[in-house]
Design goal:
The chain has about 270 residues and is mainly alpha-helical. The protein has 13 helices and no strands. Helix 3 packs parallel to helix 6, helix 3 runs antiparallel to helix 11 and helix 6 packs antiparallel against helix 9. The chain is globular, with a radius of gyration of 22 Å. The relative contact order is 0.17.
Length: about 270
């Protein structure tokens, strides 16, 4: 209980204050350097419209959404099947396989970005959405497998045993017993994966040259490179690009905090 409260308070502090400063700064005259968190005498609301047009926010958001919708469902399907197999269908070497996923979980992304770039280049997928989606699926899969394996391993075995007594096979037990009970784990995993994919920057910058084919964070990086000296305009663009992930997090803050607490316990 205490851990949950601490996480929720921490999320409120680290989320609300930076967003408030971004919002206030975005209302200052373009080209100025606002002195901290101060409300301008003449708010320039037009900065948001200018940033929207300049950064092509609609195309950037669409690209980020396409990446999220391609990555998250694929990771959920693969990790659910693999997590169930590792937890409920043990086989020779299953512990070693789980160990490999754990290694992939803690492996720094910076350690694999160069060979990953060479692999994507050799496949002819550089500067494509597919060339970004496949690596993101690969790097998020260890998290999904460990998360779902932990859920299935800790699930109550009695319903599954009753189903087996009634003649249900492994697939029927998985589909009709374990999968319906995994709803909370799947929703929490989907929420975390969506946020991480939306905000992913490293692979987007390395594997995709066109900012409008990157994740939303990658598109924001290109916008920052162009308008880094215009602080109000940069803040307006940052708010427009991050709003699609900030609003759901505010609405689902309790579930997101619970997911972070559960993930901390897994790690």
């Amino acid at each position: 209980m205490r851990a949950g409260v601490i996480v929720r308070v921490g999320l409120a502090v680290v989320t609300v204050l930076p967003l408030a400063e971004l919002f206030v700064t975005a209302l200052h005259p373009p080209g100025t350097y606002p002195p901290g968190l101060t409300w301008p005498d003449d708010p320039h609301w037009s900065n948001f419209a200018l940033a929207f047009r300049t950064a092509l926010v609609d195309r950037a958001l669409l690209s980020g959404l396409v990446v999220v919708l391609a990555v998250v469902p694929a990771v959920l399907v693969l990790s659910t099947a693999a997590g169930y197999g590792l937890a409920r269908l043990p086989f020779p070497g299953s512990r070693a396989v789980l160990g490999l996923f754990v290694v992939g979980l803690v492996l720094p992304r910076e350690a694999i970005v160069v060979p990953l770039y060479q692999l994507v280049r050799d496949l002819g997928l550089l500067d494509t959405t597919v060339g970004l989606v496949l690596p993101l699926i690969a790097v998020h899969l260890p998290f999904g497998v460990v998360w779902m394996r932990t859920h299935f391993a800790s699930a109550d075995a009695e319903p599954a045993e009753c189903a087996r007594v009634d003649g249900a096979g492994p697939w029927a037990v998985f589909r009709h017993v374990h999968l319906p009970l995994a709803g909370d784990a799947l929703r929490s995993s989907a929420l975390l994966l969506s946020v991480w994919t939306w905000n992913h920057l490293l692979f987007a910058l390395v594997l995709v040259d066109d900012p409008l084919r990157r994740t939303a964070a990658g598109a924001l990086g290109a916008f920052q490179g162009r308008w880094g000296t215009d602080v109000p305009l940069l803040c307006a663009g940052a708010l427009l690009i991050t709003a699609p992930v900030v609003v759901p997090l505010v609405l689902l803050r309790r579930r997101f905090a619970d997911a972070l607490v559960a993930w901390a316990s897994v790690r």
